[in-house]
Amino acid sequence: METIKKLTAKRLFMPIFCLAVMLVAAVIASPDFFKIGVQNGVLYGRIIDVINRGSETVILAVGMTLVVAASAGTDISVGAVMAVVAAVTCAFTAGGQQSVNEYINNPLLGALLGILAGVACGCFNGFLVAKLKIQPMVATLILFTAGRGIAQLLTNGQITYVRVESFKMLGASIPGVPIPTAIFVTVLVVVLTMVLLKKTAMGMYIESVGINSKAARLVGLKSTKIIFMVYAFSGFCASIAGLINSSRIYSADANNIGLNLELDAILAVALGGNSLAGGKFSLLGAVIGAYTIQTLTTTLYAVSVSSDQIPVYKAIVVVIIVSLQSPELGKMIRRLKAKASAQAGKGAA
Amino acid sequence: MKKEGRKLDGNSFLLVITIALFVVMYLVGIALFKNQGFAKTQNFLNLFISNAGLIVIAAGMTIVMITGGIDISVGSVVAMVCMVLAWTMETAGWGAIQSAVFVLALGVVFGFVQGWLVAYLKIQPFIVTLAGMFFARGMTAVISKEMISIKNETFLAWAQCKIYLPFGGYTNKKGMLIRPYIYPSVIIALVVLVVIFIVLKYTKFGRSIYAIGGNEQSALMMGLNVKRTKLKAYVLEGFLASLGGFLFCLNTCSGFVEQAKGLEMDAIASSVIGGTLLTGGVGNVIGSLFGVLIKGTIEAFITFQGTLSSWWTRITIAAMLCFFIVLQSVFAAAKEKNKK
């Protein structure tokens, strides 16, 4: 009993438990879930698919976790920023044409420009939130709706294709390497962020700003600067995710890149046991949460739920998680219990 | 006393800016597109006709924003309402009145659930309504992935019933008298607007909403039932969102998944441009009406101009929202300084 209590008290217990439940559900829905094969020299199978396709969500969740922790708000513009990044990269690489079979401009330069655009979007959000003290969701709502419009303008309202093999490497795989490239990128982003947070005490700063930004400022932390940086970082994460997604479909589809991914990222943060009210956070929890979401998505696809219906299920999951996190629910249940026991006491007397 | 006066000035100043902006924009439009008929009375009335739904939705949005909350689910709720209307009438064979009552009830239920989560479980309004937004949009797809056009005769009669105005007519080249017209949806929208204005200004419920938005703690100490008032505000908002959806549907006469995408942005922007503070406690539905009209004017510009992509509407609205938010935050900062 003691050991069980100790185990459940661990921070990562709930996220891992959720993931396990989800995996079991996935196996029930499609028995060959864990089967791994090799196709064209690349690992292949549902579980690989989850890890591979989950890359964008994981990377977004990393940025989102820090945003939530520092500002008690969420960055809902990430999906739209992904579309902007893809549009910038593809429009530059294709030299403004609608479909190209060879690079017009250097793709690495294009990717760099894309990342710059993404970070610029993040800085814009950060400026509104940190400097002008606007609620994070309203500030990011601006890019959430305008972002796709900007992406449309950059690509002249059409889907820009870059049909070159090497452009697909990021989203697919590098010849000779059996593991999809996106997985490497994800690991790199997660590990680098963790090291950065641990080595520089940045993690602690973010937590203290999130718990009480005024107090953090009084002890000498620059709250404004930290919140700004967190949003810029979220923009960076969105750019990496945008590049991966754009490389997967070797194009910039302003309407569909990163669609609904902001919900996934927020869900991942919440599932990872992080409070959406800010403060203490667990990056690893968010990563586990992201894979849980991806498993859910893949499983829903497996039982033939279409992509535009999936948000229904995810929305319900979000509401359940945040309700469970709410301290008010606990109070309400306690009150009900007290009432019940009082009535039972009366009956006995 | 002096301080109070200054505060009110700041807020009504924002409203004056908004109205002036609308008038200037409209005059610019008349100057630019005079030959294409921008100056006609009908063009002005078209602003109301094409935005009747948005006027109602923005009024609802203003109410929740005054409480200090927000609702980003309205665009999806409109899509869901249109889809439910289309599906019940075309596939299930319901009557128009039955469907209309059903969607309004649906809106109330939707608002109740969101309001309960916000008021009683104290979850951030943004998270709740973000979930609501994805839920409603997803439900639209669950009902039907194909577009459904409404062919119900009663409904179409409602949609196409032109009400001619007794003034503002002119004689065209063939000597026929052309009189400007509006649809019933405009009348419904304006009546709702006036009712909400009165409710907010003169009823206990309305004043409580302002009190809660201004300072929740003080409102609680004054003995107001904060939770119930918030819940009521969200229920009313849900009702207005579905009514707005119904009016929207009278314009489009169809239901499809992508409908009214980004409408929440238009509603929020209209409220903010109309002088509603994001921090709550301050706001006015008349201001929101002008916010909607400004949005309509931008749309009219882009239609008359002809070559610009319709995406520009969205980008302009976002830029204006951004500008007004910055303006608000500058005002707030100035007020802080005055206090010190």
Can you characterise this structure?
The complex is a heterodimer of chains A (about 350) and B (about 350). Chain A is mainly alpha-helical and about 350 residues long. Chain A has a domain at about 45-260 and about 275-280. In chain A, about 70% of the residues lie in helices and about 5% in strands. In chain A, strands 3-4-5 form a three-stranded mixed β-sheet. In chain A, strand 1 and strand 2 (about 40-45) form a beta hairpin. Chain B has about 350 residues and is mainly α. Chain B has a domain at about 35-260. Chain B has helices at about 1-30, 40-65, 75-90, 95-120, 125-145, 155-160, 185-200, 205-215, 215-220, 225-250, 265-275, 285-305, 310-340, and strands spanning about 150, 165, 170, 175-180, 180, 255. A two-stranded antiparallel sheet of chain B has the order 1-6. Chain B has a two-stranded antiparallel ribbon with strand order 2-5. In chain B, helix 3 crosses helix 10, helix 3 crosses helix 11 (about 265-275) and helix 8 (about 205-215) packs across helix 10 (about 225-250). Chain B is globular, with a radius of gyration of 21 Å. At the A-B interface, helix 6, helix 13 and helix 14 of A face helix 5, helix 11 and helix 13 of B.
Key terms:
heterodimer; A: 349 residues; mainly alpha; two-stranded antiparallel sheet; 14 helices; 5 strands; B: mainly alpha; two-stranded antiparallel ribbon; 13 helices; globular
